[in-house]
Amino acid sequence: MTENVIIEPVIGLIGGSGLYDIDGLEEKEWRRVETPWGEPSDELLFGRLDGVRCVFLPRHGRGHPIPPSELNFRANIDALKRVGVTDIVSLSAVGSLREDLPPGQFVLVDQFIDRSFAREKTFFGRGCVAHVGMADPVSARMGDVIAEQAEKIGVPMVRGGTYLVMEGPQFSTRAESELYRQWGCSVIGMTNMPEAKLAREAEMCYASIAMVTDYDCWHDDHDSVTVDAVVAVMTQNAAKAKALVKAIIPELGKKRGLCPSGAERALDHAIITAPASRDPAMLAKLDAVAGRVLR
Questions:
Q1: Is the pTM of this model over 0.70?
Q2: Which of 5, 8, 12, 113 is 20 to 30 Å apart from 258, CA to CA?
């Protein structure tokens, strides 16, 4: 019975702009992981923090050589799943679309609007079709832990907000920025989609911590976003993010049952292709992300 399942979590951390390592990690080892979807952004950093197994992936690679539109999101998520990660904490630099979310503020995102268009967004396709639910794309269980620890250590965090994912790599036009504000979006960035969708397809719990670096270009009292300005705030945010990671991993790493988000059983009723019509070559590529339901 699934009610009796006990999970010993392995925490995956995807570091965005300015986050290329984890402080305090023991038994550190950078290791390349091969996937059927190509190369991940970088080697994965394995280790333990307070006894909890962790795997870190720098989203853009160390030194930031990979732009948002060229990230191999499928390889990144497959690699994390392949090495046993159960819960993903995604950290990313974003622009603010709200007056009350100034640079330096952290936002625990709970919704996304995906406006990216040049990316592979699913592990499934011809030969094995699946449709997973994305109504609630993040884990409230993980969110509870992150919000509690942020308050304890004094990291300024707002719980809840919609992340508008743009294609990039250019920043917004003023008209786009104003449009997204009218839609009620909280922050804007370039990387959490299709990352969150793929994490759900791979049946991993997912939480998104957005770190505000600027006001995009809509704010009359602030200059339009520039890389120099972003990097300056990003450096300050990175120190807070590293402290937050050290605080949340021991809590997220405690043994638990299945996550109430349902992420760990997302494929139970998602695959629509009849077994006799499934392509063996496609099934072989899905061995890590969907092996639980395909075996």
A1: yes
A2: 113
